[in-house]
Amino acid sequence: MIALWAHPRSLSTAFERVFIERGDFQVFHEPFASCRFAGSNAEYIPFNHLSQSAAGSYRQVRDGLLEAATRSNIFHKDMCYHCVDELLADAQFLAYQTNAFIIRDPKTTILSHAELFPDMKLDAIGYEALYRVFERVRELTGNPPVVIHAQDLASRPDATMKAFCDAAGIAHRADALQWNAGMPAQWEAWREWHSEAGASTAITRNTARTYTVDIDTNPRLQSYYRHHLPFYELLNQQKLRLPVEVV
Fold first, then answer.
1. Rounded to an integer, what distance in angstroms lies between the CA atom of residue 220 and that of residue 215?
2. What DSSP designation does 62 have?
3. What is Dmax (Cα atoms) for the chain?
4. Using CA atoms, how far apart are residues 98 and 50, in angstroms rounded to an integer?
5. Number of C-alpha atoms within 13 angstroms, CB side, residue 62?
6. Chain segment 189-210, per-residue pLDDT in tens
7. Partners of residue 26 on adjacent β-strands
8. Whole-angstrom Cα distance, residue 5 to residue 128?
9. Structural domains in the chain plus CATH codes
């Protein structure tokens, strides 16, 4: 079982898409989202098409993943802020799997997130929860887990995926870095959040984007950035080092 822990808008879905293409892992897309966004007491988030029959509790989701892992290799991608307290308390679950983390420059992340969800909450930026779970995994294993930087994934996808696979002890599959455009079934509940990933056929370099929001003129987004920046910087110190690129 491999877990990729992310914050929103981190290119984690592109990373997950590679595992869908590989075909040798059963892939679960943000199963713990139901802990926060499904059921009668669900928190609001736009573009939410989660089935009301989706497993809603942390224990239900966790047990479902563990049961699936008895039958096949499992890859699941999720946001730590969906259930951070439960994760921190569940040493057995964290220790059972290979845990990896993905980060992206917080200014880009916050702008991308605010474009889709202007009323997002502070904790939904995600870096603090991500760092807390990272530290818990390091405490449990005695070693820092793998941290992937989205910029490396976008600019050097083959080298980044190979370095990750080497660290995770699985075979690198370069053929899985290309695919046919389309919305995988795993993404349907959040399809509007993944429109660009669904239209993609490979991981490509990020292009400059213009957003309708601006951190520099938005005090709330500035406060979000100041709060989460230290956690990003700590995680960035641990990012996966890639071999020097030969030009």
1. 8
2. H
3. 56
4. 27
5. 17
6. 999 999 999 999 999 877 678 8
7. 74
8. 12
9. 2-236 (3.40.50)
The per-residue b/e assignment along 192-219, b for 16 or more CB within 10 angstroms, e otherwise, is: ebbeebbebeebeeeeeeeeeeebeebe
Amino acid residing at 100: A
* Strand ranges (E), the chain: 2-6, 26-29, 74-79, 98-103, 146-149
CA distances from 227 to 106, 124, 176 (A): 10, 12, 37
Asked whether 21 and 180 are in contact (CB, 8 A), the reply is: no
Tens-digit pLDDT profile for residues 107-159:
999 999 999 999 999 999 999 999 999 999 999 999 999 999 999 999 999 99
Q: Quick one: three-class SS letters along 181-215? A: CCCCHHHHHHHHHHHHHHHCCECCCCCCCCCCCCH
Query: Which among 29, 10, 112, 136 is positioned nearest to 74, based on CA atoms?
Result: 29
**Amino acid sitting at position 173:** R
Which residue is associated with the tokens 């917080």?
Answer: 106
Spatial separation of the C-alpha atoms in residues 147 and 237, rounded to whole Å: 9
179-190 tens-digit pLDDT: 999 999 999 999
Residue environment code for 54-64, b if the CB has 16+ CB neighbours within 10 A, otherwise e: bbbebeebbee
pLDDT above 80: residue 233: yes
Identify the H or E element spanning 136: helix 127-141
